[in-house]
């Protein structure tokens, strides 16, 4: 019997939406030859059964459960069951390279690995349990070794999940989100852009990407239905659009690169959904304005929302994109209800002059708890409120620079550090540089962002081939972190300050590559 | 279409990026992503190309993403 939690947890919120009567559809799951609709009543039952299985293992609150899966009804059940059982879930997708999976396992020390299908359960460390799950439920194949029972209840500030992003030190960085933070985000988001209770929200992001959490908040938090989209469909734009049509999808949330192939290869088909698609949330990286205008022209009646923010609060603002998209880009801000974005200058004073640039600092209950096992990085990101350090309040120093618009709106203006976005994923170039430098013989490496990917400049002896370097990256890094362009150079140019001269490197690429 | 014909057509199809990258000949087990011959956007086009030349309908979601990365695995999965 599970201890009752003190306070509301993710599962209670997502399964208890006011519009979510037991007969209403919660998940539209694609299966061979069609779809199966899973009702909220059925979903609640499945979560209760899975949570009972997890409870029976004798794990302690806060123990980690690594879930390897694509997004599916079964994966949603497991994730909500972890929340109910007070266990912290760590989502990973099957595409994650095994070397990276091992690093995540080494640092989070999960007590249980659960995989959809075969998975990589043999990676479970000594003492950890392992099991599989599907629509029939969770099957534990090997129980974990457990310690003495822990007498404490779960509270809403406890960690709900850890997601990993690229880190400057060459190892992935784990962002710890509490139940309270996730729910503060969900509530703020739903107050601004709910899908409508009869809505159907397509989920197209990788399972480990927190845009998937956003999708869950939209769909289940809004009392609507979640439609997990098989990832392979994103490579076949016409079939992707046909899928959206067949599933009755009313909303798609995704990074710009989800739309790029559709705009190129299936614009007419997408335009055919103009009366059905009610809302599109775009974000994760800047949407090139000309491309966005094409999307808008195909779907003139769809409400388009620009979501902005970092995984340290899932996101922080939902701005409806105006009819006439400014050339400056898609506007950002203000923060969702319950949070506040502060544009501050280098001295911590508010930026008030239109046209001026500052750094976005975020206040509110949606902030992450810290970086997993990394107090130093945590201190650098969760800083005393520059406007009133005496209060003891911590705010998130995001590293995102923004320009203040004439009407108080913001426009993204780059990063304070070297971090870049690749296909909606944030990447620390230093992590890729370290990987390249680890290759035998490589003496220098500089990595920077170009159109749709990274460019790497490498100093290496003859005999080190481009393919070998790419293969070495591919073995350890997600595909989006593998440099799209790789150039051998005699030396890495530095500027007057002794820093890598990124401008000179960029200029050395032909225009077609740099984009 | 025979395996050799498929390899030849696909090498032709990828000739431009191969030339740009200095890849002299694409081996049947060469990783197209590792070589930099395809990226996510070009993969969309490569799958459409494979459907066209092999005369089959590909359901990408039914396959391990890895099958799209070498000439051999593409033909193994969709040719013959």
Q: What does this entry show, briefly?
A:
The complex is a heterodimer of chains A (515) and B (80). Chain A has 515 residues and is an alpha/beta fold.
List keywords for this structure.
heterodimer; A: 515 residues; alpha/beta; six-stranded mixed beta sheet; five-stranded mixed beta sheet; 15 helices; 27% strand; globular; B: 80 residues; mainly alpha; Non-ribosomal Peptide Synthetase Peptidyl Carrier Protein, Chain A; 51% helix; 0% strand
Number of H/I helices of chain B:
4
Tell me the total number of β-strands of chain B. 0
From the spread of the alpha carbons, the general shape of chain B counts as globular
Proper CATH architecture of chain B: Orthogonal Bundle
Percent helix among the residues of chain B? 40-55%
CATH fold assignment of chain B: Non-ribosomal Peptide Synthetase Peptidyl Carrier Protein, Chain A
The chain-level structural class of chain A is alpha/beta
- Quote the average pLDDT of chain B: 92
State the shape of chain A.
globular
The biggest beta sheet of chain A reads: 6 strands, mixed
Superfamily (CATH H level) name of chain B:
ACP-like
State the largest interface. A-B, 29 and 24 residues
Specify the structural class of chain B.
mainly alpha
């Amino acid at each position: 019997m599970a201890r009752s939690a003190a306070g509301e947890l993710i599962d209670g919120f997502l399964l208890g939406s006011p519009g979510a009567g037991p007969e209403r559809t919660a998940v539209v799951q694609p299966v061979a030859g069609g779809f199966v609709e899973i009702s909220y009543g059925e979903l609640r039952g499945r979560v209760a059964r899975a949570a009972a299985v997890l409870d029976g293992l004798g794990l302690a609150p806060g123990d980690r459960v690594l879930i390897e899966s694509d997004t599916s009804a079964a994966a949603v059940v497991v994730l909500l069951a972890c929340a109910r059982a007070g266990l912290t879930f760590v989502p990973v997708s099957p595409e994650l390279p095994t070397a990276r999976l091992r690093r995540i396992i080494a640092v989070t020390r999960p007590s249980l690995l659960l995989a959809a299908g075969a998975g990589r359960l043999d990676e479970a460390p000594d003492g950890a349990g392992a099991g599989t799950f599907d629509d029939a439920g969770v099957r534990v194949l090997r129980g974990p070794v457990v310690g003495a029972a822990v007498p404490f209840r779960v509270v809403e500030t406890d960690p709900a999940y850890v997601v990993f992003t690229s880190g400057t030190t060459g190892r992935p960085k784990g962002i710890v989100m509490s139940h309270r933070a996730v729910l503060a985000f969900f509530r703020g988001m739903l107050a601004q852009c709910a899908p409508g209770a009869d809505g159907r929200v397509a989920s197209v992001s990788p399972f480990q990407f927190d845009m998937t959490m956003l999708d869950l908040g939209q769909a289940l938090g809004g009392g609507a239905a979640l439609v997990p989209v098989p990832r392979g469909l994103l490579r076949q734009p016409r079939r992707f659009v046909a899928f959206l049509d067949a599933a009755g999808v009313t909303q798609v949330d995704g990074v710009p690169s989800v739309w790029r192939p559709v705009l190129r290869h299936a614009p007419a088909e997408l335009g055919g959904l103009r009366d059905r698609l009610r809302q599109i949330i775009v974000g994760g990286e800047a949407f090139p304005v000309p491309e966005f205008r094409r999307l808008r022209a195909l779907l003139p009646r769809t409400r388009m929302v620009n979501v902005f923010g970092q995984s340290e609060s899932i996101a922080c603002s939902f701005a409806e994109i105006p009819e006439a998209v400014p050339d400056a880009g898609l506007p950002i801000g203000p923060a969702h209800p319950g949070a506040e974005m502060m544009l501050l200058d280098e001295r911590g004073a508010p930026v008030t002059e239109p046209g001026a640039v500052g750094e976005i600092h975020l206040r509110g209950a949606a902030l992450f708890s810290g970086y997993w096992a990394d107090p130093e990085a945590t201190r650098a990101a969760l800083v005393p409120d520059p406007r009133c350090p005496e209060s003891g309040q911590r705010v998130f120093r995001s590293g995102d620079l923004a320009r203040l618009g004439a009407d108080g709106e913001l426009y993204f203006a780059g990063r304070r550090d070297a971090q870049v976005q690749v296909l909606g994923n944030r990447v620390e170039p230093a992590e890729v540089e370290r990987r390249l430098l680890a290759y035998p013989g490589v003496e220098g490496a500089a990595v920077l962002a170009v159109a749709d990917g990274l460019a790497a400049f490498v100093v290496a002896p003859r005999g080190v081939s481009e393919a070998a370097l790419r293969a070495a990256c591919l073995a350890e890094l997600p595909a989006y972190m593998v440099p799209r362009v790789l150039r051998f150079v005699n030396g890495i140019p530095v500027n007057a300050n002794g820093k890598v001269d990124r401008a000179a490197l960029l200029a050395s690429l032909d225009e077609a590559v740099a984009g | 279409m025979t395996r050799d014909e498929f390899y030849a057509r696909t090498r032709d199809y990828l000739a431009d990026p191969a030339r740009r990258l200095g890849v002299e000949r694409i081996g049947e087990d060469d990783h197209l992503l590792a070589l930099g011959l395809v990226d996510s956007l070009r993969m969309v086009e490569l799958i459409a190309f494979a459907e066209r030349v092999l005369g089959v309908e590909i359901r990408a979601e039914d396959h391990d993403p890895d099958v799209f990365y070498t000439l051999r695995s593409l033909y193994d999965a969709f040719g013959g």
